[in-house]
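Next comes a single protein record:
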Amino acid sequence: MKKLYTAVVTAKGGRDGHIKSSDGVLDLDLKAPKAMGGEDGFTNPEILFAGAWGICYLGALGSIGKRDGVDVSEATAEVHVSFNQESETSYQLSAEIHVHIPGVVIEKAQKMADAAHKGCPYSKATRGNIDVLVKAV
């Protein structure tokens, strides 16, 4: 495997912490979400992961669209990342990816969505590790 790029981010302080990328572009305070006893107005790991996964997923969908001759430039991926409690000290993520491809019938959109999920690097990284539902909408 040929390494094309490496992102470097330093994290401090856990859920009520700070992250900063080596290039300084990303420099954020994080807080637990209000639903987990935190504060509104801050981002959290699940939001960051959902955003990164959604963008990466759309890249994979773009490849599928090119292969199939379908314009996916207006497609959206709404990624839901849930933080779930398994036991008193154990937690697990789960996710749903809601894919909308304007002008494409739902059956075709679902096939394309599933194909993109097979190829997306974030989807590959989570495959077999967390529950993921991919749904054309």
Notes: Helices lie at 45-68, 106-119, 121-126.
